[in-house]
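Weekly modeling sync, notes
Attendees: S.R. (lead), two postdocs, one rotation student

Agenda item 3: backlog of single-chain predictions. S.R. asked that every request posted to the team notebook include the full sequence so nobody has to chase files. The rotation student volunteered to paste the first one in as an example of the format we agreed on. Action items at the bottom.

Example entry:
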Amino acid sequence: MHEKIKTTFARAKELQRFSERLITKAKGNNLTARRAVDRDIKDKAVLKKIFEVLLPRYSDRKGGYTQVYKIGQRMGDSALMSLIRLVQ
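Predicted structure, as returned to the notebook:
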């Protein structure tokens, strides 16, 4: 929904796997693809954004829809923080 998130590095790597697979599934852009994506995403606004904004953007791209940037350590527990964002 926001196209970029600041989170821990471990969560960012897992989110990258999830989002890459989700966008690849959605690229079918038929009823089966919509139902497969709907199983994982329940927010209707996010579904609309995936199929109306992100799919046209990534229609000719084979993969690599996200990037993860390491941005340092968190003050409280020194966890490695990162920024994950969708590629333009």
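Discussion: group reviewed the output briefly. Strands lie at 4-8, 66-73, 80-86.
Action items: rotation student to repeat for the remaining queue; S.R. to check formatting next week.
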